[in-house]
Design a protein that fits this description.
Length: 217
């Protein structure tokens, strides 16, 4: 028990999420892309057994997929719908490629014009196409990258296209412990008409530890 409490304390000290200035641009890039990651509170940065879910948490972890994986998820809250479709496959003993699509469809809004006219439009419609690569440098160290192509449309009037980059590393410190770092959403600002907004850039650091319990625990 003392060992468990010590590790949890270290996790509180070293787990960080560093974000850039607040932005409302491309909120689809902020959404977690898998039910497993959502259910675990988005703590997968330093975990070694997330499989294809590492596309969201840390692309370096893709290198540990043994063969191939497919995942899909869909969620709806009030009038906002979010979906994810992803596939990853090992192509060499050290290299895994992944391809995924993310979509965010916000609810409807009403636009009122000065001449008395009004019409309902979709508030926001976003799509993200992601090409991922996880590469195992050696048995303990992996690196990964996500290349993202993003399209966003607001109120069926303003459409922007952008690109973003994720970089991650994963270290298997021992059979039980893993540590990871990921830099998410590197890229230039996006411009909606006259106003520019930065991408939701952030840096995350995390770790994972596997506890083996006996049959009575």
């Amino acid at each position: 028990m003392r060992k468990i409490l010590l590790f949890l304390l270290l996790g509180l000290v070293f787990s960080q999420n560093v974000e850039a200035e607040k932005t409302q641009a491309l909120v689809v890039l902020k959404f977690p892309m898998s039910a497993k990651i959502i259910g675990m509170g988005e703590v997968g940065v330093g975990m070694s057994d997330n499989g294809i879910n590492n596309i969201f948490s840390n692309p370096a972890g893709l290198s540990l997929i043994p063969h191939k994986e497919f995942s899909t998820s869909y969620s709806s809250f009030v009038d906002t719908n979010y979906g994810f479709l992803g596939y990853a496959k090992r192509i060499t003993p050290c290299n895994v490629l992944g391809l995924s699509l993310v979509t965010l469809q916000a609810g409807n809004m009403e636009i009122n014009y000065l001449d008395g006219r009004s019409r309902k439009v979709k508030a926001e419609s976003d799509y993200v196409l992601i090409l991922s690569n996880g590469f195992m440098v050696n048995k303990r160290f992996s690196i990964g990258i996500n290349l993202k192509a993003v399209q966003s449309e607001l109120a069926e009037e303003v459409k922007v296209k952008s690109s973003a980059l994720d970089l991650g590393v994963l270290l298997l410190a021992s059979e039980d412990m893993s540590l990871g770092v990921v830099i998410r959403n590197l890229g230039s600002k996006v411009k909606y008409k006259e106003e520019e907004d930065p991408l939701p850039f952030n840096i995350r650091v995390g770790g994972g530890y596997k506890f083996y319990l006996n049959e009575n625990e």
